[in-house]
Amino acid sequence: MKKFFRTLAFFLIFTIFFTSCKKNVTGSFQGKAKGHNGDVVIDVDIENSKIKNVSLKESVETEDVGAIAINKLIEKVNSSDFNLDIVTGATYSSEAFISAFADALKKAGLNYKNYLKKDVQITKRDEKKEMDVDVVVVGSGGAGLISAIKAKENGKKVVVLEKLPIIGGNTLISGAEYAAPQNWLQDKENIKDSVELFEKDVEKAGGNKELIKVLATNALDGAKWLRDDVGVEWMDHLMFFGGHSVKRSLIPKGQSGKELINKLSDKCSKLGIDILTETNCYELIFEDNKVKGVKANIKTGQLTVNAKSVILATGGFGANKKMLYENDKEIDDKILSTNQPGSTGDGIIMAQKIGADVVDMDKIQLYPICDVQTGKLLYTADTRLTTGAILVNKQGNRFVEELDTRRKISMAIKEQQDSIAYQIWDEDSMQKSKVLQDHKIEYDNLIENKKMIKANSIEEIADFFDLDKENLKKTIEKFNKDSENGKDTLFNLRRLGFKIEKAPFYCLKAVPAVHHTMGGLKINKEAKVLNTKAQEIDGLFAAGEVTGGIHGNNRLGSVSIADITVFGIIAGTNASK
Ligand code: ADP
C-alpha cells in the first residue's frame, strides 16, 4: 500500500512538472475578474509565451479612479513592466485587473507567479533631483490647479506636485456644485439673491466673517472665470442645497468634479504647467524665517523644489484616521470615509512643523448614508432628501428623524446594532426621484452586491436583510398612518407627504462616513498662512480644504467648490506677485 502511494505521488509530481513547463504558448486569452462596479474583462495576446499586448475588453469601472488605475496597469504590462502594484485609491479596480491578468495567464497554461518573476523590475530609490521654480503648488485638486493656472498666467514658472498617480483629489469625486449668488441662471429664473444673503447663510455656522465676505463677494466672478477662461460647462438648471436661503448652486456638466478637473487640467497643459504625479511632498524648506521650497519623495528617490513661494493645496484630513480620532472623540472605526486616499492632512502637518496655526480642527462633517464597504457617498439614497424615505434598524424600528442634521443621523446610526441603517422607500418615491435616471450604475452595483434590494413586499425586505419582520411591518403601518394625518408622532419628520405603500419597495443598507474636514490652516484674506502669533509666514500660501475657518461647524453643500475657486485664485495671484 505504501509503495502504491509513493508511486502515485511520484506520478503526480511528474505530471505537474511536465504540464507547468510544457509549451511555447501563442494565442489570445481572455481574463475576467470582479471589480468595484462589475466585471473587468481583458484580452491578453501571447506569442511564444511572451506577452505581446493586453487590452481592456469590458469594464464598468466608471469611477475615474478605477478606470485610470486599470489603464495605468495596462500601460505597465504593455511596456513589459510586470511589477503590478495596487494603484492607491483604486484597490478594487487594481486587484480586479491583476486577477483578470492572472486568469488569462492561467488559461494560457502559464504559471502567473513564475512568469512574473522573470520580468519584475526593482526600482532604485537613490536618485536626488532638484529643480528651481517661482511657485510650487502642492496638491492637484481644484484649489491646486486653479492657483497654478493663476500663477502661470502671471508669467511665473510653476510646478504642481501630486502624491497620487492621478490628479483631482476630492474635487474629482465630488458633485462639484458651485454656490454663486446673483448668477446667470438665477436671473433667468427670477430668483432674488445677493452677496449679503449668501454671506449670512454661510456665517450661520460660525466661521470667520472676514474670509466669508471675500468668498461671497468673489464667488460669482470665480464661476464666470471657470466658465469663460477655463471652459467649464455648467448645466442649465440650479440646485437648492440645505442651509441656503435661495436656489443658487450651479451644476457642472454630468454633475461631477470630472468636468472641472478635466477642463482645469486641459488649461494647465495649454499653459505648459508641469504636474508631477506620484510625488509625495513631506517637508517645507524653511530658512531665515522664509519658506523656500519643498522636499518630496518620488519613485526613484527624492526631489527638492526650490521656489519663491509655496502654495499648499493638499486638501483635508478625511482619510487620516489618526487625525480624525484625535480631533473628534465621537469618530471611531465604525465611521468610514467618503474621501479619496490623498486627504491625509499632510499640508497641515508640514505647515504646523514650521509654526503655522490651525483653526476648527474638531469640526468634522459626516455623511450618514454611505456604502457599508467602501464609505462612498450613495446618491441612490437621495430619495431620503428629495421624495421621501425612512430609516430603520435591525429591529425594524425607526430611530431618528430622517431629515435631521447629517451629524445627528450619523451618530444615531452609529448607536444601532452593527452601526448600520436600512433606508426604505417605495415605487412612488422612486419614480418621482431622478435616482434611476442619474445614478443607474451605482444602483445596479448596489443590487448586484446585495447591499440593496428591490422587493415585492416588506416581508421580502425583512427576510433579505434579516430584520425583525413583525416590527418592520408595524413601523411602516404606523408611519403611513402618521403621514396620512400629516404628523409624524415618533420623530416629527419635518417633511412628510409620502408613504411606503406602493410596491416594489426598495431597501438599502448604509453606514455613516467622514465627508469634509472644516478645520485646517489659518489663513488671512490674501491666502497667506498665519503662524501661532497671527503673523504671515513669508512665502507660504494655502487654499481649499487644507485651510480652516470659513465653514465654521458646518460646510453647506456647494460652498466648498466656490471656496477652492475663490481662494485658489487669490493664492495663485498673490504667490506670483
Ligand atoms: P481641494 O478641494 O482643497 O483642492 P482636493 O482633495 O481636491 O482638495 O485635492 C488635494 C490633493 O492634494 C489630492 O489630490 C491629494 O492627493 C494631494 N496631496 C495631499 N497631500 C499631498 C502631498 N503630501 N504631496 C502631494 N500631493 C498631496
Summarize the structure in short:
The chain is an alpha+beta fold. 38% of the residues lie in helices and 24% in strands.
CA gyration radius, whole angstroms: 27 Å
**Which percent range fits the helix content?**
25-40%
Q: Could you tell me which ligands this complex binds, including any ions or cofactors?
A: adenosine-5'-diphosphate
Q: Total number of helical segments?
A: 20
Question: Which regions are unreliable across 5 or more consecutive residues at pLDDT < 50?
Answer: 1-22, 117-123
Beta strands, count: 22
* First-residue to last-residue Cα separation: 89 Å
Give the overall shape, derived from the CA principal axes: globular
| Mean pLDDT score | 90
Question: Which class best fits the helix and strand makeup?
Answer: alpha+beta
Percent of residues in β-strands: 15-25%
- Major sheet: 8 strands, mixed
Question: Would you write up a description of this structure?
Answer:
- It is a single chain.
- With 577 residues, this protein is α+β, with helices and mostly antiparallel strands.
- It is 38% helix and 24% strand.
- Strands 4, 5, 9, 10, 11, 12, 21 and 22 form an eight-stranded mixed sheet that branches.
- Strand 11 and strand 12 form a beta hairpin.
- The longest helix has 22 residues.
- The N terminus is likely disordered.
- Adenosine-5'-diphosphate binds next to helix 5, helix 6 and strand 10.
